[in-house]
Amino acid sequence: MKIYLISIILFTLFFLPINADEIKNIDIIRTSTSFVKDGTAPRKVRNDDWTFTRVFFDFNKDGIVDYFQAVQRYNLEQTPKTASPSDFELYLGTGKWDNVKQTSEFKLDTKILNGLGKGCIHPRKALINDFNLDGMQDIFIICHGWDKHPYPGEINKLILSQKNNRYKIIDASAKKGFYHGGASADFNGDRKPDVIVTNTSSYSNSSVEIWYGDGEGNFKPSKNNVPFGLQKKIGVFSITLPDVDGDGIFDLFVGGHEWENVPTTIFINDTENKFKVRDKIIIPKVEGFGTVLDALVTGDFGDKTVWILRTSGGNNTFYKGICIQEYHLKSQSSNLFFCERDRNWFPWLISWKSWDKKNYIGSSNLKDDFRLLLER
Fold first, then answer.
1. Predicted model pTM
2. Cα–Cα distance, 306 to 241 (Å, whole number)
């Protein structure tokens, strides 16, 4: 992969930490709203609502992309008992383009989903899959609850499709926890979607759990198939399931607070959805940017690159700035692609091809105005 950006990139051996202060920043290519009418490029989040929990897909199967968001409504001046629940909002796409707002036009629909004031306290991530096997996509909401000591946790939510083409909100399980990250796949080969979650709370003796689905919208939390080193590892907050080695099967990426002895790790799938501790890759630490938020994988078979999204942590700062690390699987080498301490952090990293036929990585939220050019 060739990167046509002027920078000084620090190269390290695979086992050495990286110091983000030793590289110069890469100039950000400012985003243009003209390339996001359709496709998987960044999109504008509705209004200025505080939400990381959002997803675009066709809810009502009319061929037009719709938008879901879970909007946080509580504040820390409340108490865990009085905290306001979030709004689960569904916006149906009209297929029209708003030239003033430079975004696709969406309208709030409370008939298909009546979720105002019915969400969890602190939603963190939305996972899409057909959890009741009716041909309609459902949404599993990762929820961690009151974000302050004593971190009491809460119950995850499921937005489940019904026979009347509407959706209802139910508890995904009765198990309370501080759920911060998650991803969905079939882990046991029964063709029923499961969910893997991170859970760091006093209610759990496990940091990573697999919730096995029964195909009807019910889940059973378990440690089966969770790598042994993660079963009681406190401090894991981010998880995703990219195909790292290019064999067509999902692998397991986990990250969290590196300064709390939580290494950023890739566990390779043994082709039976089991992840052995010996089959793992440790990503080098980045000093001062020890909070791992997200990851994605680009490239072709035999030449994969893992992109790790980070923010500050472990250097007397927390959730300040953005750093994007690239790890080349073939050479087991690591570079810092971009680091800026004064920039606002964002939670999700995506890749896309713009109308100019160039490849980018950046924030999924167009309002973050952040994309970096890749030229392969």
1. 0.88
2. 12
